Amino acid sequence: MSVNEPQSTGSIEPRMYITGLIAALAASILAGIVLHLTGWIGAVATLYNLSGEVMGWVLVLVHGMFAGVVFVGIVLPIVGTYRDIVAQSEELIGPIPTAGLIGALFGLVLWIFLVIAVPVWAGFYLGADMDLPYLNLPALLALLVFGALLGGSYPVIDDLLT
Predict the structure, then answer these.
(1) C-alpha dist (Å) from residue 27 to 21, 38, 145
(2) Which domain holds residue 64?
(3) Residue 144 domain-assigned?
(4) Residue 65 falls within a domain, yes or no?
(5) Assigned domain for 7 exists
(6) 6: closest CA among 68, 14, 25?
(7) Cα–Cα distance between 113 and 115 in angstroms, integer?
């Protein structure tokens, strides 16, 4: 299975969402470990006016599952439109590293979104005053790890499910 397969079939099959959710769960756990080790897991809960590391973990897992659905529903079809470039990369470095790079780029895009969304959300929902952009390096690391594992494990999990 290649990450650009959705374009070849013309539609996204339910199995692809299951694959994405499984990959996202694994990736969320690893991203949560990064946030936990850097002392930022509780900050995730704070964004919802909640407290504690347990709530931070729950929110990281929930957000990760949502991101897994976005990856399958939006990112994979976009990648499929560039299947010639993806095929060249897969020839050069292999399908799993290529998928991991695509996932890491997805993680970077998520972080860029959060750089703006977190301060806006915190101001609106919490009344907090945060710097815009909010450049949080532990979040960048966590999202790069999340994306790389999400993308890199997707073809492996898909092969196991078929």
Answers:
(1) 10, 17, 7
(2) 12-161
(3) yes
(4) yes
(5) no
(6) 14
(7) 6
Taking only the tens of pLDDT, the chain with its 162 residues reads 555 555 445 578 899 999 999 999 999 999 999 999 999 999 999 999 999 999 999 999 999 999 999 999 999 999 988 989 999 999 999 999 999 999 999 999 999 999 999 999 988 988 888 888 889 999 999 999 999 999 999 999 999 998
Burial status of residue 113 (CB atoms within 10 A of its CB: 0-12, 13-18, 19 or more): exposed
| Per-residue model confidence (pLDDT) at position 4 | 54
Evaluate the CA torsion angle 102, 105, 110, 111 in order and state its sign.
Answer: positive
Tokens 């070849």 belong to: 8
Among 100, 94, 96, 108, smallest CA distance to 142 is for 108
CA distance 160 to 162: 6
In a domain, 25, yes or no: yes
CA–CA dist 34, 40 (Å, integer): 8
